[in-house]
Design brief:
single chain; 44% helix; 6-stranded antiparallel β-sheet; alpha+beta; 2 domains
């Protein structure tokens, strides 16, 4: 578990008087299963902030990276039924790994976060035929390929849609490297 998540868990008990496991029990007793419904209940009925409600909802559902014993299982799950896209992911990870030894690959349930101190990119198999690569390049000119992330993902400023391995080229790797280098 990363330090930030552990700090939130510690603060949860300090702020509410109940441990994470006790809050998970509260959620299970409600019978709610949808993430948004759990968050709404915790905020409305228990005065949670969004961050704490999101943490408890993920833990109750087992849908956070910290609830998985093998992070590679998250990646396998992302590409289940989308196996043809996995070579694109593998090629991107290999290229990004060459940027430096301070890269952190952090799989989540639906995407992989790429970090250097802070997140600078994400890789997400969005459909059975497309991977979206989100890149943090604020104030960077748009092209016909490098578009605004818009409502797709607010954690990055731009995205590139990939349907074929041939689209992982110098241009895309260059944008990723620029985002990486901005975090010095």
């Amino acid at each position: 578990m990363d330090d930030a998540a552990q700090t939130m868990i510690n603060n949860l008990e300090k702020n509410t008087g109940k441990s994470l496991n006790q809050w998970i029990d509260v959620v299970k007793e409600t019978g709610l299963v949808k993430h948004g419904e759990i968050i709404k209940m915790l905020k409305t009925d228990h005065g949670f902030t969004h961050g704490f409600a999101n943490l408890v909802a993920h833990k109750a559902k087992g849908s956070d990276a910290g609830s998985v014993s093998n992070l590679n299982d998250l990646i396998v799950g992302q590409y289940q039924g989308k196996e043809s896209l996995k070579p694109i992911y593998d090629t991107l990870i290999q290229a990004i790994g060459k940027f430096g030894d301070d890269i952190e690959i952090a799989p989540k349930k639906a995407y992989v976060s790429i970090k250097r101190k802070k997140q600078f990119a994400i890789i997400q198999p969005s459909t059975k035929t497309r991977i979206d690569v989100g890149i943090q390049l604020k104030e960077y000119d748009l092209t016909d390929r490098l578009i605004k992330s818009g409502s797709w993902n607010s954690m990055v400023s731009h995205r590139v849609k990939l349907a074929d391995l041939s689209e992982v080229n110098e241009e895309l790797i260059g944008w990723l490297k620029e985002a990486y280098e901005r975090l010095r």
